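Supplementary material to the annual report.
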Amino acid sequence: MPLLTRTLIKTAMLCFALALALGVALALGVTNAFFPAYIHLLAFGWLTQLIFGVALWMFPKYSAEKPRGSETLGWWTYGLLNLGLLLRIAAEPLNAHQPNAVSGRALVLSAVLQFLAGLLFVVNSWARVKEK
Amino acid sequence: MPRLSVWFIRASLLYLLLGFFFGGLILAQKGIPFYAPVWILFPLHVEFLLVGWLAQLALGAAFWILPRFSGAAPRGPATLVWISFALLNAGILLAALQIWLPAALLIGRIAEALGGILFVVGSWRRVKPSGAFK
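Predicted assembly:
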């Protein structure tokens, strides 16, 4: 299993554990401002990141020289995805509690980073989704 | 990878992009409000990412990876699963029309459900021990 896949899957597992812990906190009555973070840790940090990791590993080879497409794009996907998610988790509850310029801009930046992560994954994977 | 899986997975990648784009617009609106009606995209964000991306990717990968039969139709009744693909995607697109046509949501969800059922029917026997049902 390549390093990028291992990194994506282990980070996904951490997101899963964090999401479940946050689920407990929400059930205990912690502010509902964390609810979007909980959902996105599960659907984005866990499921989507796990899929990215497995897909980069298992999809048909791009070519003999570059079996997994661009490793660089793969690492950019990883970095943007997790930086975007972290920014969201930090800024969204703050912004819900007391909207301010810093948390507002952080949310916009988070939105851009997460979209770019998805775009880079699609660009890097599209040609590997092919008939044998 | 069989052609049907290519279609399932490439469609799921397109829904991933659309779902992320709509989600990004909504998140940006939370941060720096620029156009409140962007929230109308929320049901599409959810539909595209849960059904269009996650569920559809799983179906495409399953059709590719599940154990095969040794006869003329190694992946079972492929026509049935092609119909499943068409129904699922017609359903997602119809559900997306709910913004303008609320009744389309129910029709879309019925099409999605039928698509899902056909996939299950078409794949059921492929979930088998090694060597069974050749």
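The radius of gyration of chain B is 17 Å.
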